[in-house]
Design brief:
- It is a single chain.
- It is built from 11 helices and 21 strands.
- By secondary structure, the protein is of the alpha/beta class.
- It has 2 domains: about 1-335, 3-Layer(aba) Sandwich (Rossmann fold); about 340-449, GMP Synthetase, Chain A, domain 3 (2-Layer Sandwich), CATH 3.30.300.30.
- Helix 5 crosses helix 6 (about 150-160), helix 8 packs parallel to helix 9 (about 225-235) and helix 10 packs across helix 11 (about 395-410).
- The chain is globular, with a radius of gyration of 23 Å.
Length: about 450
């Protein structure tokens, strides 16, 4: 463990060495999946591929992708874990399902080796954005079945940090510990970080917090310049983007102090970017869908998991000196979040970018789609609330400026509804920004949150 790098031999390895290690581990993983799992054997036999076809890294594109619905179907047919676990239950140490926000959760299993690996590369991410032994970490990631709280807790202990395992929510206690125990690091979703920053402004009455670092994951946001600026200014921190995926692993990609993209733990994961239309690999720096493969996972390894998340990947050496591949701009959007209105396609994070650039508005917003089925009409309304700075301004003044900014960003002009301060609900977990209503008005039936 060096002063700058947690594991310099891996983090600054030549690209040829990274690829050599990945190919060695990939061959091992594909072979064991084919030999030990009926799920994989049937999948690969149908596709006409075998482990012997994997002679170099690029050959992984010959193998089929796996999507979340495939895993749900497998676990429904062969409950509760499906046929892709590669280990007996007596070797399993933990169960962590996906959130299940868009369907039944997908169960993943961790062996002792998996727990060790997750602890190791999570510690490496913490070190990469500046956490050091002796730091006091307020861990506001949710504990329990949502896996990020546990992985950060294990890694913080590994780094000999003082952990406050408060978990998500309970704003009053979060503020109490911020004032009394004086943590130096906070981890949370961006939504909760923004909410806490609002409360801190009133609670601390101009005093600075003890925080110096914040890392935010579980949803998009930190990579949005206006959101990062607010987190940093209000909390007095450097704010870093953090990424994980329940089906793959928590907290395995994070920004370094250069803040020039998520660094990937390439010794444990193979990262591909695939064109969703052609299913061909994207060129370096081209935006596509992330496809991820476990290289070291024992319990429930996934080969070519289709994440639905859009990103680009570059392999040029970062300003920090690391050679691990990174994704500038973080996760650029998710196919699950794509919104279409009057032919224009956009993501909620683009609305966030606009709303949070207005000092007259608070940081909360909602996007409401209302479908009038009788007239086959759909309206889209961006719902915002005033901040204390904007409370005395006429709604019409804010509305005109906001519509213009939304039109420039989204290439379509939604309706705007402006509410008084503190009207919209805040959340400590993943914020639900999009509402879909049928019936021709606000009193209609909500069909999707």
């Amino acid at each position: 463990m060096g002063e700058k790098y947690y594991e310099a031999a891996v983090e600054t390895a030549p690209r040829r060495e990274i690829k050599r290690l990945q190919l060695e581990r990939l061959k091992w993983q594909v072979q064991r999946c084919y030999e030990k799992s009926e799920f994989y054997r049937e999948l690969y036999d149908r596709a006409g591929v075998k482990p012997s076809h994997l002679e170099k890294l690029s050959h992984i594109s010959r193998f089929p992708v796996i999507k979340k619905e495939d895993l749900r179907r497998e676990q429904a047919l062969y409950p509760p874990f499906g046929r892709y676990p590669l280990t007996s239950l007596d070797r399993v140490r933990e169960l962590h399902p996906s959130s299940g926000t868009t369907g039944n959760p997908v169960n993943t299993l961790w062996t002792e080796s998996d727990v060790e690996n997750i602890t190791h590369f999570t510690a490496r991410t913490l070190w990469g954005f500046g956490v050091r032994p002796g730091d006091i970490i307020q861990n506001a990631f949710s504990y329990g079945l949502w896996v990020a709280g546990m992985s950060v807790h294990y890694a913080a202990r590994r780094l000999r940090c003082f952990v406050i395992p408060i978990g998500a929510g309970d704003t009053r206690r979060q503020l109490y510990f911020l004032k009394t125990v004086k943590p130096t690091v906070i981890l949370a979703t961006p939504s909760f970080g923004i909410y806490l920053s609002e409360k801190i402004e009133g609670e601390f009455e101009g005093e600075e917090t003890s925080l110096r670092i914040g890392a935010f994951g579980g949803e998009a946001g930190t990579e949005v310049p206006s959101t990062r600026e607010k987190l940093e200014r209000r909390l007095g921190i450097d704010a870093f983007d953090y990424y994980g995926l329940a089906e793959m692993s928590p907290t395995f990609a994070a920004e370094c102090e250069a803040k020039d993209g998520l660094h990937w733990a390439e010794d444990h994961f193979l990262v591909e970017v695939v064109n969703p239309d052609t299913m061909e690999p994207c060129a370096e720096g081209e935006v596509g869908v992330l496809v991820l493969t476990h290289l070291t996972k024992e319990g429930t390894p996934l080969i070519r998991y289709w994440t639905n998340d859009y990103a680009k990947v570059v392999t040029s050496r970062c300003a920090c000196g690391r050679t691990l591949a990174r994704s500038p701009g973080g996760i650029l959007g998710s196919a699950d979040d794509l919104l279409i209105y009057k032919g224009a396609k956009f993501y909620p994070v683009q609305v966030e970018k606009v709303v949070r650039s207005f000092p007259e508005l608070s940081d909360e917003y909602r996007i409401r789609f209302v479908t009038d089925e009788e007239r086959s009409l759909e309206t889209c309304t961006v719902i915002v609330e005033k901040s204390n700075k904007g409370v005395n301004l006429p709604d019409s003044t804010i509305e005109g400026k906001l519509k213009k900014a939304l039109r420039e960003e989204l290439l379509v002009t939604p309706e705007v509804e402006i509410l008084p301060p503190d009207t919209l609900e805040r959340t400590a977990f993943k914020a639900k920004r999009v509402e879909r209503v049928t019936g021709g008005g606000k009193s209609g039936k909500e069909v999707q949150g």
